[in-house]
Please model this.
Amino acid sequence: MLLAGITREERRRPYFKHFMADVEKLLKELVRLRLKSAVDGETYLECLEILLSLGFSSRERNRWMASMAETLHRLGKGPAPKRYVRGSLGG
Model:
């Protein structure tokens, strides 16, 4: 995830401030519109974990945690989906 690496580095040591909003927008759109259908469930979960570590807004984090819960449920994983749903609802 090249865009995630760029975002992480930019937050650590800002340099490209003038276009980072565009990079972050592209990253979020790729996840929302393309990633889920393009990769297997496990890879999608790994990518969402990376996104959660980048420090986006609570609203974005909640959306990604809900998506993680749905994916875990679809993969037949145990109680983990409840943890993500509770987290995404602020509980």
